[in-house]
Amino acid sequence: MTMQAVDLEVVPQNWTRSHLLDLESLSAEELTLILDTADALKERTDGCRRKINLLAGRTIANLFFENSTRTRTSFSLAARRMGADTIEFVASGSSLSKGETVVDTAKNIEAMSVDAVVVRHRTPGTAHLLSHNLDCAIVNAGDGPHEHPTQGLLDILTIRQHRGSLQGLTVALVGDIAHSRTARSNIWGLKKLGAHVIVCGPSTLVSRDWEKFGVEVAHNLDAILHRCDVLNLLRIQFERQYTRPFPSVREYAFLYGMNRERMAKAKSDILIMAPGPINRGVEITPDVADGPHSVILDQVTNGLAVRMAVLWLLVGG
Ligand code: CP
Questions:
Q1: 63, 67, 69, 232: residue to mutate for ligand 1 pocket, most atoms within 8 A of CB
Q2: CB 70 near ligand 1, within 6 Å
Q3: Cβ proximity of 279 and 235 under 8 Å
Q4: Which of 45, 49, 157, 296 is the most buried (most CB within 10 A)?
Q5: Which residues are CB-contacts of 204 (< 8 A; sequence separation ≥ 6)?
Q6: Taking Cα atoms as reference points, which of 11, 143, 148 lies closest to residue 74?
């Protein structure tokens, strides 16, 4: 799929979705439309710096039942850059502590004339549940280990901006694949757009079952490194694990951490990515995270562009 010019005056007729719940159900054409819209909005807003009033009069509610730095800030800023009003709900201090359910909480916030609810929750399927119970647009901002569609989109947009196309690229997702919603969204999106995907990590975090998704499974980073155009280094999610999946963090860093020695063996134009937050010295050393191959902060900027695009497609026009 190549980039298409996007008209930002009207939402394209070939966009028919009311919600963004996952990347699994999107077609390559729908993924490409979101990416093209994000590119157009990034250009129109001078790199996501300027305001553009395409969502004036709309209200976007951020419902975060789980911690977030990047996603919550980014959705909030994206909505305000587009001229929308925002509601910021955080679970701590809310009436959840009095026994109110997630659905009732969301319905009450929707009743304040909200056009879209952006939801993050540790339970897989929460965004889908809200989409069946509310009338407004629902955007999944991460549901446990299931999916994180806008993270997948911003990762893919970053690769596309640096390489022109996803077709034929080899992208390795390294680390805690078992608990990673980012891995799942990346796999669905990358494969639909023509990339070869490798999932790499210790066998306790990367089982052979992943081959069912049409990806290559690897347990030895050094053996695949020379073939990779992109490395996306995923955080070890200790908070979602019941047992330690490897003997020590030091051993994990030795076997799977991206460092200067491994960079010397990688392709000369390799892209180093991480969804964040990063554990410096575990999945990536500081010199690599801050080095010339790193596009980690480009990913964050592209998060704004992707979220502006998603909000525009769902509630714009
Ligand atoms: N990448 C990501 O989702 O970061 P946050 O948890 O800080 O939102």
A1: 69
A2: yes
A3: yes
A4: 157
A5: 178, 245, 246
A6: 148
Report the separation in Å between the CA atom of 9 and the middle of ligand 1, taken as the mean of its atom positions. 31
Of 249, 254, 256, 246, give the one whose Cα is nearest residue 225. Answer: 256
Closest atom of ligand 1 relative to the 148 alpha carbon: 3
What pLDDT digit, counting tens, does each position of 8-25 carry?
A: 888 999 999 999 999 999
> How many A from CA of 10 to the centre of ligand 1?
30
pLDDT > 70 in the chain, percent: 97
The pLDDT assigned to 244 comes to: 74
Q: Side chain identity at 74, as an amino acid letter? A: S
Size of the chain in residues: 317
pTM over 0.90: yes
Tell me if 68 CB under 6 Å of ligand 1: yes
| CA distance from start to end of the chain | 25
Q: How confident is the model at residue 242 (pLDDT cuts 50, 70, 90)?
A: low
User: Rounded CA gap, 158 and 135, in Å?
Assistant: 32
Using the mean position of ligand 1's atoms as its centre, give its distance from the Cα of residue 74 in Å: 10
What is the distance between the alpha carbons of residues 284 and 104, in angstroms, rounded to a whole number?
41
The model's pLDDT over 287-307, given as tens digits with 9 standing for 90+, comes to 999 999 999 999 999 999 999
